[in-house]
């Protein structure tokens, strides 16, 4: 078998390596128009910031390594310009010499990845405007920062890479403004979780311009000012483009490969395209959601590696398949970790799930061991009692908890199952009732109607509509006076049983504390006293105040 792979980063090299492990006789060639192969694109911000010292740390393997280890040919700076899928040949241009030649294949893998979106803004081609996608981008950006010691940077786009770049440049002493066209950072998150990231960024000196669109980069070949649609002007020394990426599907389209609804190549679980003997993997290809079963596109190195390994096995007689993804992601900014998996609340409601939402703020370990609060937002489906998605913001233990949720969701565990997990416990690592367990318990109780939850957004809608409700703040008077929910009255938990005698048991009642625990205790008291419609405010007053500050 003659296997040709176009693209040599995560997916392409994984296909080749697995195929060679399975089959010593296959002839394997990889073509790539770039200079570097098998590099860590996710490490680029840390190289620009100096946390990663050498570019070699991001490019641990080269063509010589693959030739020696796997006896396969990796030809960099070789651009495949055309494919004849009927003859099963391709035309290749050597970008260093200009020579063109023809090669043939039995099986062809498209692993052409994705490229940075360059917005059509006047001045975007200036010498101090940098996309962040490959090693050349990284080196050019770092060299500029090293040589010019800029005082201010403007970052366009507030996704993973944009926020990581904001952190790294700030740590180098550069003032940073982040501009994002939608009114929040991290578009995959719900606003009530993104606001926690925004608050943390601002506390660390990052200026955020949200709901703003850049219309012009002003300067004669060198940007000096950034202008937004609302008329704001930002003096700046460099601009980072982080507005997203798009799959490199040009070659695929040229031979009639079907493009899916996400804009990436449509494939099945065997990563076959609609064109015979042509396959696709990595950032250029769609996956499918383990929650909905529908196509999903999440260009991440972890997914590309998995797809590549499975495809390399399939092409050499194995039976691995691509099983789909949840769209899990995680990043950190100024010590704060942000993770998400599955559907957001917004997506779940758009897909008409019967949604149950919990905001659970708990320490990652006991306070006497230095525990710090992490906030878990869990979205469940009342019809099936399965988790639809989880978002976590905190400082320690976020990665551990998101991975537990991912595992549970992958194997279709119900929210009720989470409490029964035998998770590792010792005070340096966790609380006796781990936040994951508590999340399952609280969601299950809410679905059972024994401890119903209401989100700040839902509560505010009912308040604004003038609904006749009883809203009870169960905290101390001193806490109530500092900040409270609109229309609330203060009845500390210890006084609630007495005060309940004068309350309407049939009127909708909402109780809350700071984070939710005392609110739940108050909810139980009222239910046991015969109150028929009692809710605990999800995430308590802390969550409500963030909602009020940042909107929904």
Largest sheet: 5 strands, parallel
CATH-level-4 superfamily name of the largest domain: FAD/NAD(P)-binding domain
Point out poorly predicted stretches. Answer: none
DSSP helix fraction: 25-40%
Residue share in β-strands:
25-35%
Average residue-wise pLDDT: 95
Q: SS-based structural class?
A: alpha/beta
Number of distinct helices: 17
Walk across the major sheet and give the strand order: 3-2-1-7-18
- The name of the CATH topology of the largest domain is FAD/NAD(P)-binding domain
Q: How many strand units?
A: 30
For the record, the count of structural domains works out to 4
Radius of gyration: 27 Å
Keywords: FAD, Flavoprotein, Oxidoreductase, Redox-active center
Family: Belongs to the class-III pyridine nucleotide-disulfide oxidoreductase family.
Domain Rhodanese: 465-549
Protein name: FAD-dependent oxidoreductase
Which terms summarize this structure?
FAD/NAD(P)-binding domain, 4 domains, FAD/NAD-bd_sf, five-stranded parallel β-sheet, 552 residues, alpha/beta
